[in-house]
Design a protein that fits this description.
single chain, mainly alpha, globular, binds zinc ion
C-alpha cells in the first residue's frame, strides 16, 4: 500500500480541480476518510487471518463492490454534506476505488482483489513505480520510509495535484475575469 498519508491525494486533487462549489469541504473530509478506509483490513493480521484470503489485506475491502457500497451508504449523508446524492455517490466511489488502484501500482505485497466476491484473483497494474509502504508506521520512520515517501511524492502527489492546481487556477481566473 502507499502510506495512509498518500491515499487522500486523489480526493484532494479532485476537490481542487472541481472547486468547493462542486465538492463541499464536508464531502472532501468524508472522501479523505474513505480513501484510507480499505486499509482497516490490516486488522486481519492481528486476528490471524491470512493475507491471501478474501478477508485478508487487499481482499474484499479493496474491491470495486466495496467502493460501490461505501458510495451508496455515503448518499445517506447527502443532506448533511450539502451536495446532491448523485455527486456524493460518484465522489466517494472514486475516492474509495482509487485506494485499490494505487495499491496495484506498488512494488510489494499481494495484488488487489478488485473483483471480489466474483473472483478471489489478486491483480497488479502492469507497472509498479510506487514503493510499497511498510504496514507498521514505526518502520516508516526508518531510511526505507524516506524512499517510500519520495516515490509517493513523485508518482502519486505530483500526478494528482499538478493537473488539479492548473484546472483550479484556470477556473479561479475565469471567475475573476467575469466579475
Ligand atoms: Zn490498501
Amino acid at each position: 500500500m502507499p502510506t495512509v498519508l498518500t491515499h487522500p491525494a486523489v480526493p484532494l486533487g479532485l476537490a481542487l480541480a472541481l472547486g468547493r462549489r462542486v465538492v463541499s469541504p464536508r464531502l472532501l473530509a468524508v472522501g479523505i476518510c474513505v480513501s484510507v478506509l480499505p486499509d482497516l483490513d490490516v486488522l486481519a493480521f492481528r486476528l490471524g487471518i491470512p493475507y491471501a484470503t478474501q478477508w485478508g489485506h487487499r481482499g474484499f475491502s479493496h474491491s470495486v463492490l466495496f467502493a460501490v457500497l461505501v458510495a451508496l451508504l455515503g448518499m445517506l449523508l447527502a443532506r448533511h454534506l450539502r451536495v446532491p446524492p448523485q455527486r456524493v455517490f460518484w465522489f466517494l466511489l472514486l475516492a474509495t476505488a482509487s485506494h485499490g488502484i494505487l495499491d496495484a501500482f506498488t512494488n510489494g505485497g499481494l495484488g488487489v482483489a478488485f473483483f471480489w466476491p466474483w473472483s478471489q484473483a489478486r491483480f497488479f497494474a502492469p507497472v509498479h513505480p510506487v514503493e510499497v509502504a511498510p504496514i507498521s508506521l514505526t518502520r516508516l520512520l526508518t531510511g526505507k520510509g524516506a524512499s517510500v515517501l519520495w516515490s509517493e511524492l513523485l508518482w502519486v502527489w505530483l500526478p494528482c495535484l499538478t493537473p488539479a492546481i492548473i484546472v483550479g487556477t484556470a477556473r479561479y481566473w475565469q471567475r475573476a475575469r467575469r466579475r
